[in-house]
Fold these 2 entries.
Entry 1:
Amino acid sequence: MSYKTIVGLEIHVELATKTKAFCSCENSFGGEPNTRVCPVCMGMPGALPVLNEEVVHKAIEAATAFHMTIHPVSRFQRKNYFYPDLTKGYQITQNHEPIANDGYLEIDTEAGPKKIRIAQLQMEEDTGKSLHSEETNTTLMDYNRCGVPLIEIVSQPDMSSAEEARKFLDKLRKTLKVLGVSDVKMAEGSLRCDVNINLKNEQTGERSSIAEIKNLNSFRAVVRAIEFEEARQQKLMEAGEEEVRTTRRWDDVANETVVMRYKYTANDYRFAPEGDLGPVFVDEAMIQSVVEGMNELPDVKLERFQRDYGLSPYDAGVLTERDEIARFFEEVAAQYEDYNSLANWISGEVLRRVDTDDEEITIGLRAEDLAYLLRAIDEKKISNNAGKKVLRILFEEGGSPAEIIQREGLEQVSDTGAIEKVVVEIVAQNPESVTQWKNGKDRVLGFLVGQVMKATKGKANPQMANELLRRELEKQ
Ligand code: ZN
Ligand code: MN
């Protein structure tokens, strides 16, 4: 029997706005609990919400990046439920009339590019946080996060493996980061992912019950939870066992998904129109002005790097993978024109020394220094190997390349007279090599070049040594 995996994702992203969604409380992470709250975000009677325009702009940016249809009119509803972290007793959301529908993100798979459709994008607000203490067996509430703006993005169930889900999430995260829509820090909860997964028996068409895994907060957890569910659900199907739909959570320690609740009936949130907020109107002029101010999207940048710099798709991919790397490349490229050589140096020698696992990366190198170094190599002032050495010193100790080249005595001797003198000496010292050369053994040339390099402590320009040696041997 073969089984097809069906995965859909629901992603909540906290928006990087200055203030909260419906009040003027500061929107930021951490800090002293309950210091960024007001009657509006605490849901006090009589307090009225006012929509923050920045939230709408960020939602438009995301919807544009995901190729979605943005609606001229959208509306907020109240989603009623009781939970200690939700003082109002309802969440303001857009389940029924969202700001955008029907888009996609394209991911690369082994079989080529694949479009993962996005069904919906809605604006809503975050809840507070419950802080459980095992020691004192108490729960304390921090409401600073109440009313922090979110967009919820719902994909179609178009992913068929953990790897595809990871790629989708990665692309989405990168896109929102580049746009500045969110800081997308999963560890701080700025990006949270729910996974919906079930299997389909490809022979019989029979499907397992959908499991919904809530609030995954790392790529690794998403991948492992999907892989765990694939195995668990396949076992159930093979045994012919049926299961009601479950809501689960991922237990990182036990390495398994755990049932939180069984879904015998659909949740009834008693959605009602949010009467305190009017409809959200978005016209063409607003969309246009938002789009004009948008940062370049990853796919667009990837294409531009290939087109404008003549780079291979692979090199362009490496350089545009991180914003900081792309920015550095372009800064050097403004001063140095062999873009392919530059791409090789950055993806090799430079990135080898940069910690790309960090969320924020810094390239500890000045663009003008790398440009200077590469020109020095092109002009044969220093050898390629000497260039690598200078780069290493620049990273480890700093300084200027010109000064390092001088101090380390790395300048190549390209003075014909000086090299010629050494060449004549070397040929005179190696009569047997001359005989071999005359007998057609070209290989000895390499040996003799080596001797010249050794005699000049590696400073002779090797091409020049080669050329002069050849001439000297012809004379013998
Ligand atoms: Zn507030
Ligand atoms: Mn939601």
Entry 2:
Amino acid sequence: MEQKAERPVVLAIETSCDETAAAVVEEKEKAISVLAAAVASQVDVHRLTGGIVPEAAAREHVGVIRPLIEKVMRHGGKKGRELSAVAVTVGPGLAPALSVGLTAARTLAFIWKKPIIPVNHLEGHVYSALLAGAGKAQSPISNFQFPNDDAFPLLALVVSGGHTVLVEMAGHLQYKVLGSTRDDAAGEAFDKVARLLGLPYPGGSQLSQLARRGDPRAFSFSRPMLRSGDLDFSFSGLKTEVMYTVRGTDSASLKARRADIAAGFQQAVVETLVRKTESALRRSGKKRYRLLLLAGGVAANEALRGGMKAMSGEMNIPLQSAPPALCGDNAIMIGQAAVFAWRQGRLTDWRRLDVSARLSIENPLSNLS
Ligand code: KG4
Ligand code: ZN
């Protein structure tokens, strides 16, 4: 693909799950500047059903996407003709939800005569950590410095409601999946266990707050797949184990033990994620990876951030976690990945795109006809 010299100004759109998000980002001298960003969450809608109904998610996206895009364009001080491209998440995610973002992107690209940069949702998460800068706390609306060229090869753990995946990057936009979940994603397990404990959807962050008051050693839940010999994960058995524990506890004592169950479950997930990531580092010889990245909604979890920090310290590898405000779904991360995709010439015409619910990060363009 051709290399692009011009520094791009990009409108980025994200609708893969239950957040409608848009952002305007601009490449500056070895940095990405966020000119404007907004997220509209559908959590209140999905709380009523205790989970996401894809068609309901799509309907919500339709309702808010246009004013959201108008808002970021206005706040970003950009007219359509001043953009270099429109970036949009094309997968993985819920197909009806993805379609809303793609339709908006295609329509605007057609009207403004601009190319589209298709972005894989997972590469967006990875770039939110890659651009976070070691140890620097960056606000969500900010300047993000490019990583050093010697950041590669690197290892990234993306943990979200839909995915748990260990990815190796040999260079920008070059991904190899080393392991992923065979069933539930880590965030999904958090949400399901939170529900068992009577917390409202999506319970991940509330479960972690409850866990602060609990004793992680009071229950010894299993650490799934630690001896599987590969880098895959599985969280559905652990969730079932917690379910039997909850069912086996009478309701009077359950109230007193909820925090202990939450702490025990969180500890089991964190330890599993940390030990598997450590195995991935060891397998390649610890000198091999220059950087470890942690991203995705579950990366907001303080116990996980702490566990990964301790392990990376022992393994002597620098760790960069996505800023807490950018762990959950947002469009800044899509804009961040899009700037690098632009630099490599990943541009397409509005006619040549479709969404792909199961799009692999290894081939972000596999859905182009
Ligand atoms: O990345 P994300 O916003 O959406 C997907 O791409 O799936 O991740 C959302 C997930 C939800 O499952 C949510 O419960 C979980 O991230 N999550 C957390 C925390 N904050 C969000 N899980 C554990 N601890 C948290 N603090
Ligand atoms: Zn996500």
